[in-house]
Amino acid sequence: MTDLYNETRDCNFEDPTKILRTLYNKDDAVFLISNFLKNNIESKFLLVCIGTDRYIGDCLGPMVGTMLEKMNIECPIFGTLENPVHAVNLKKQLTYIEYTYPNHKIIAIDACLGAEDNIGYIHLKKGCLYPGKGVGKKLPAVGDLSIVGIVDSCDHEEFFFLHNIRLNLVIKMAEIIAKGIAGGLG
Known about the structure:
With 186 residues, the protein is an alpha/beta fold. The chain has one domain. The chain is 33% helix and 21% strand. Strands 1, 2, 3, 4, 5, 6 and 7 form a 7-stranded mixed beta sheet that branches. The longest helix is centred in the C-terminal third of the chain and has 19 residues, at 167-185. It is globular and about 40 Å long.
């Protein structure tokens, strides 16, 4: 799970070509995501959907990967509910991707922690994300473009153990992200 505070410190929120922030239930969320991707995908790319289904809050990435796989989009997808990309296998997967898809850009997708009033927001930006940082792990940076969904607050110390995250929220956010990605490819 990514830590949004460390992700956005150097970002310029005023430049909509470099970063997008939208609430998942806004009427134009899918359009905004699609448009951002259309304007920022310049070459071959693949998706790395990071997380695990062992924790509700961390299954956003693999859920998006599974939804996109069912949509039969025409790009390589790494990280689904059946075959997740997570802390244990991330380095191995990135090595495989680098060897097998050397000319592809990576769009990385992960769940994220943020301020309580930002739960439900989806952030897209040019640049990588740092998976695991939100739960104190040191993993390699991933992505040329990144998409994070804020699924819980990091305002309290026991965020990882409280399990306050609603599966309904994660599913709805995953649907919006998947539809936005599918639209951005069309």
